[in-house]
Amino acid sequence: MSCTPPRPAHRHLPVALAALLALAGCGAPPELRHPTASATTAPTISATPTPTLTPTAPVTPTRPTRATPTPDPTATPCRSGPSADRVVALLRGPARVLPRDVRVTVRTGPLCAEGWQYTVLAVSGHEELQVITRGRPAALELVTAGTDVCGVEVRAAGPSGIRTLACDGTPGA
Asked: pLDDT tens digit string along 132-161?
């Protein structure tokens, strides 16, 4: 067997065949395949109709999802406590905010929202005192007390009803 280089005509044969095959698949452009109908010629009718709608799967009705109840944006009078006397007792006792001999009158509240309470007290000889507490009446916890109680803890963790009173509301309203 001898190994001879291919003749020049045979070298270009695979390239020419590939080009011919590529061109053969193209065919005529779409606008030349179907002649345009003129006003004098009758329209042509296709033997196979073209479907206009694609069938879709039937829609399965879904059950409505139950919405999570949204917290009440307002604070309302506390039904199950704490009482105003309990709030004052906390301020005079363990919290040590009020001295025992000062006279206190409740102006607003306690108003409750999601386990938190808001109370406004008139303190004789002093400015009005806003008080925010949380917890059960028997285990009441002082969150903050003062003339401006819109602090970080109230803004970050307080229910919207308490935040509204403490940060946007008017004291004593």
From this structure: 999 998 899 999 999 999 999 999 999 999
State the Cα–Cα distance between residues 82 and 16, nearest whole angstrom.
Answer: 97
Whether 161 maps to a domain, the answer reads yes
Q: Which residues pair with 120 in a beta bridge?
A: 108, 130
Domain that holds residue 121: 77-168
Half-sphere exposure of 83 (CA within 13 A, CB side): 3
Confidence of residue 42 (pLDDT cuts 50, 70, 90): low
Q: Is residue 144 within 8 Å of 162, Cβ to Cβ?
A: no
**Has residue 25 been placed in a domain?**
no
Residue 108 tokens read as: 């607003």
Is the pTM higher than 0.70? The answer reads no
Query: CA–CA separation, 89 vs 79, rounded Å?
Result: 19
User: 92 lies in a domain?
Assistant: yes
pLDDT score of 49 more than 70? no
State how many domains the chain has: 1
Residue 23 falls inside a structural domain: no
Cβ-Cβ contacts under 8 Å for 74 (sequence gap 6 or more):
113, 161, 164
